[in-house]
Write the structure tokens for this entry.
Amino acid sequence: MEIPPQDKNEILDLLSNFIEYFNQDKNEISPLINLAVLYPQFENIHTST
């Protein structure tokens, strides 16, 4: 079982990376592939435990 990040700075860094990727121009990449990349990142930052 993976432990979600607990440190505020670590969470902010992960969110920053997530938002940076989300805002990139992704016209050449399928939306399904983008979802496959972003969803696990989101789950690792904010788990529903």
Remarks:
- Residues 8-22 form the longest helix (15 residues).
- Residues 8-45 form one domain.
- The CA atoms of residues 21 and 37 lie 9 Å apart.
- The chain has one domain: 8-45.
